[in-house]
Amino acid sequence: MKTIGVLTSGGDAPGMNAAIRAVVRTAMHHNLEVYGIHRGYRGLLEKDYEVLNSRSVSDILQRGGTFIKSARCPEFNTEEGVKKGKKIIMDLALDGLIVIGGDGTIRGGLELANEGVNVIALPGSIDNDMGYTDFTIGFDTAITTVMHAVSNLRDTSSSHGRVFVVQVMGRDCGDIALHAGIICGAEEVIVPEVPFNIEEITSNIRRAMARGKSHYIILLAEGAADPFLFTEKIQELSGINTRLNIIGYLQRGGSPSSFDRMLATRLGFHAVELLVQGEQGVAVGIRGNKVIHKNLQQAIEARDSLDKDLYQMAKILAV
Ligand code: ADP
Questions:
Q1: How far apart are CA 193 and CA 177, in angstroms?
Q2: What spatial distance separates the first Cα and last Cα of the chain, rounded to whole Å?
Q3: Which region, left, alpha or beta, applies to residue 159 given φ > 0 means left and ψ of -120 to 50 means alpha?
Q4: Could you give the residue range(s) of every CATH 3.40.50.460 domain in the chain?
Q5: Active site residue 127
Q6: Of the residues 130, 235, 255, 289, which has the fewest C-beta atoms closer than 10 A?
Q7: What pLDDT score was predicted for residue 304?
Q8: 148 pLDDT band (50/70/90 cuts)?
Q9: In the chain, which segments carry CATH 3.40.50.450?
Q10: Is the Cβ–Cβ distance between 130 and 304 less than 8 Å?
Q11: Thinking of the domain 3-138+256-301, which architecture would CATH place it in?
Q12: pLDDT tens for residues 192-233?
């Protein structure tokens, strides 16, 4: 093994840089050359890359985003796209490729692995929507960002006795809403995985206010309901001033938390160690604080379900 590539693809996530740094420095330790492929599979198809060394990854551990850039590349969803990617990997004489990204990125990695490329995937996504790993790189930072935003909103919610609906990311996966809801002490958490009843929520609000609660924060996952209609309905049914806040892309950026730096570093290191040991076609993740790897197909198929115990706990504590 002489040369490996690394790319980041799909939505960026805080900690991707920390993962690239760990990949590059571990590779240097094994005397491997590393090509940083720009803009994910788009850059691969355009043969757009730079040679990375230890100095290229100085001063990036603490930065959000990804310095080798990320992109979506519809062309790579086609058989021709994947074949072209494989040909470029052969032209570049890459003995291995580490792909960092979400579910889609790992699917792209599997397609390349099926063409004979030595692929290792790392889970980079703020959504925590991959079932084979307890946590994805970027999730902890995202919920920390939400936590700070909600702390500010809580002040105004208390001062004015208002209800705040806070929409957070998560189209299919309610993990950001649930975990942030718990660490913020939100009164309600609405996730795509569990149906909600708007009358029940509004009667909870009225009862809470009658008991003397001065604030009411509802964390609403993106995929659970239309945030505008939801907020309007809550105000209409409860008769209490209700305001909507959409946190949006603020959740995607920022300096990675200590947890994400550690996770990204451990996974990046492990990915290169696996390649050096001759392992490939796997996704690296974390289970019970141990670094694990799973075959790419199994990693994609692993069902990501909401932690029902955590959800129950959030409900009990919100009273
Ligand atoms: P994420 O990796 O964050 O889930 P996407 O789902 O947008 O983001 O996927 C990122 C990129 O991965 C896509 O733009 C495409 O280039 C590639 N990709 C996604 N799904 C596949 C697939 N089934 N086959 C090949 N490439 C794919």
A1: 11
A2: 58
A3: alpha
A4: 139-253
A5: yes
A6: 289
A7: 87
A8: very high
A9: 3-138+256-301
A10: yes
A11: 3-Layer(aba) Sandwich (3.40)
A12: 999 999 999 999 999 998 998 888 999 999 999 999 999 999
One-letter identity of residue 124: G
Q: How far is the CA of 230 from the centre of ligand 1 (A)?
A: 31
pLDDT of residue 189: 98
Q: Which of 12, 45, 77 to mutate to test the pocket of ligand 1 (most atoms within 8 A of CB)?
A: 77
Is 85's C-beta closer than 6 angstroms to any atom of ligand 1? no
Query: Which one is catalytic: 12, 48, 59, 127?
Result: 127
User: Does residue 10 line the site of ligand 1, with CB under 6 A?
Assistant: yes
162 lines ligand 1 (CB under 6 A): no
Q: Can you give 216-251 as a three-state secondary structure string?
A: EEEEEECCCCCHHHHHHHHHHHHCCCEEEEECHHHH
Ligand 1 binding pocket mutation candidate from 9, 45, 304 (most atoms within 8 A of CB): 9
* Class of domain 139-253 (CATH, top level): alpha beta
pTM exceeding 0.90: yes
Mean pLDDT value across residues 284-306 = 96
